[in-house]
Write a structure and sequence with these properties.
- The chain is mainly alpha-helical and 90 residues long.
- It has 2 domains: 54 residues; 35 residues.
- It is built from 4 helices and no strands.
- The relative contact order is 0.04.
Length: 90
């Protein structure tokens, strides 16, 4: 099976494929650069918020929770409460 994969790779690099490969690699590299810039922007925003006294750990949790479906979030909270109760109400 590994031989099939390597022969496919060799076959894929014939004809117009090298140009397509280069295009994919360049797109990935640009996206990686964009991702790094966005991560730096996020770091700055969280730093600014922290400087104004906000708890960035909680802010990250709020962002994560806001992405979730309300019903899914409520279900997870109910299970968490159940588990905490089973452990003596930490």
């Amino acid at each position: 099976m590994a031989d099939d994969a390597s022969s496919l790779s060799v076959d894929a690099l014939n004809g117009a494929a090298p140009g397509r490969l280069k295009s994919f690699i360049e797109r990935i590299e640009r996206l990686e650069e964009d991702k790094a810039a966005i991560m730096e922007d996020l770091k700055e925003v969280f730093g600014e918020a922290k400087g104004e006294g906000f708890d960035t750990k909680i802010m990250r949790k709020v962002v994560r929770l806001r992405k979730q479906d309300k019903a899914k979030r409520q279900e997870e909270e109910a299970i968490l409460d159940l588990y905490l109760s089973a452990l003596g109400g930490l």
